[in-house]
Amino acid sequence: MGVVYLDSTTGKTQELRARKEVILAGGAFDTPHLLQVSGVGPRDLLDKIKIPLVVENPHVGEHLWDHISVPYVLKLSDAADNLPESVNIDGTEHKNTAALFYINGPFSWILHLRSNVKERQPQDMTDVQLYVMGNSSLFDETEALCTTSSKRGTDPSDGSREGTIRIIDQWPEYRGSVKAQTSSIFNKPVLDYGWDYKLDNKVSPKFKKVAKVVRSQIRLLREIFFGEKASEVSETFRGLVLDEVEPGLDKVTDEELDVWMRGMFVSALHPACTCKMPDCVDEFLRVKGVSNLRICDTSAFATQIDGNPVATIFAMSEKLADMLKKKYLDDLDEKSCTKTKGKKSNLIEADSSDSNDNCFD
Ligand SMILES: Cc1cc2nc3c(=O)[nH]c(=O)nc-3n(C[C@H](O)[C@H](O)[C@H](O)COP(=O)(O)OP(=O)(O)OC[C@H]3O[C@@H](n4cnc5c(N)ncnc54)[C@H](O)[C@@H]3O)c2cc1C
User: Fold this and answer.
1) What are the boundaries of the signal sequence (predicted)?
2) What angle separates helix 205-226 from helix 254-262, to the nearest 10 degrees?
3) In ligand 1, which atom is closest to the CA atom of 106?
């Protein structure tokens, strides 16, 4: 088992061979892409891009599952400039209230909240997570993944202040795919989120389900800021919110909200499941049908998760590290890889053994 990499110092490609195993951790887009251009993936796709098939697996690059994010934007009063250091929305102590409105930039996400909107999830899971952000110019980074003219990317030109609560649907029914376009790893793959909501104003069953969740959340937020629950909000916060900018209080009916929403979906930047367990990897993260190759990133998630992915990836990595230590403990001081001179056997090989070696006692 081995890898080819581009040595940026020489501009030449090099081959590295692992004595034991290779672990892929390229993320939900690049891991399936790398597998596909290495000959592991759907037969039709590999035929199309003229890659010799090593292991057929129709699931590699499929099942792309991301959280969907929709903005709820509020117009704020000047009181935002003079917030006390510590107060929560319900009047209780919160340490960084002021920072919530003063900090800017991609790392200024302050609060992640779980909403109790429950349209699909029966038990402890929540349908929606809310990100409370300082202003509406945040989330510009989604441009890298999704271009939609409708997301609010700037603060208002009249100098007034806005605050955004991103509504994150954590279980959208949509599934997409990642597909290599050519045999070269340097040509980006085609990403398709499978979001069909823009097509000729089509209202698909999947869109209906996502829209129902988002509408419930918008209506709940309206109750809190402008409706029955407003009296429960602390005085400080009541003085803060002037108006609803997006979707706008004039949009009331399901139809009006759905039309608005259609232009607003962006990725919440949590793509996963494109080499999912158990279709592509087993419970020990071993790539099915390939010897000595594992995956440790969000592509291997069996399902999306209820929250942001990084903690789960850390847990997955720690677990894999424990498994590998256990398996290779005796050889830990050996060099784990070696540069090859000249061409040897294939870098990636189908697993012909019937090994049930699972790293556990
Ligand atoms: C702006 C932004 C903010 C986010 N905020 C949060 C947050 O607050 N909390 C949270 O939990 N999650 C957050 N996420 C999501 C989180 O970052 C991802 O879910 C997570 O990083 C995915 O981890 P991964 O290991 O699967 O892949 P990645 O972290 O994407 O790691 C893959 C790595 O592989 C490298 N790579 C890919 N292909 C190759 C190749 N061919 N050769 C060599 N290297 C390669 C990439 O450069 C990258 O370093 C955020 C994401 C973004 C974009």
Assistant:
1) none
2) 110
3) 1
Q: How far is the CA of 219 from the centre of ligand 1 (A)?
A: 33
27 CA from centroid of ligand 1 (Å): 6
DSSP 81: G
Residue whose CB lies within 8 A of the most ligand 1 atoms, among 3, 67, 270, 274, for a mutation test: 270
Of all protein residues, the one whose alpha carbon is nearest to atom 39 of ligand 1 is 26
Ligand 1 pocket, residues with Cβ under 6 angstroms: 25-28, 30, 34, 106, 141, 185, 269-270, 297-298, 308-310, 313
- Look at ligand 1, atom 48, and give the residue with the nearest C-alpha: 26
- Which residues are CB-neighbours of 62 under 8 A, at least 6 positions away? 42, 175, 177, 274
Sequence-distant (6+) residues with CB within 8 A of 266 are 68, 69, 70, 139, 142, 145, 146, 148, 151
Cβ proximity of 112 and 129 under 8 Å: yes
Q: What is the 3-state secondary structure (H, E, C) of 16-36?
A: EEECCCEEECCHHHHHHHHHH
Q: What number of residues does the chain have? A: 361
What pLDDT was estimated at residue 79? 67
Token readout for 188 is: 């980006």
Within the chain, which residues score under 70 in pLDDT? 79-113, 121-123, 133-161, 197-202, 236, 330-345, 352-361
**β-bridge partners, 169:** 68, 128
**Residue type (1 letter), 160:** S
What pLDDT, on a 0 to 100 scale, did the predictor assign at position 356? 47
Strand duo 40-41 + 55-56: pairing: parallel
Task: Give the Cα separation of 318 and 266 in Å (integer).
Answer: 31
Torsion of CA 337, 339, 290, 35, to 10 degrees: 110
Residue 105 CB-half CA count within 13 A: 3
195 CA to centre of own chain:
15
Q: What is the pTM of this model?
A: 0.85
Nearest CA-CA partner of 189 in 348, 54, 35, 23: 35
Give 259 Cα–ligand 1 centroid separation in angstroms: 32
Q: What is the pLDDT of residues 240-287, one digit of tens each?
A: 788 898 899 999 999 999 988 887 888 889 999 999 999 999 999 999
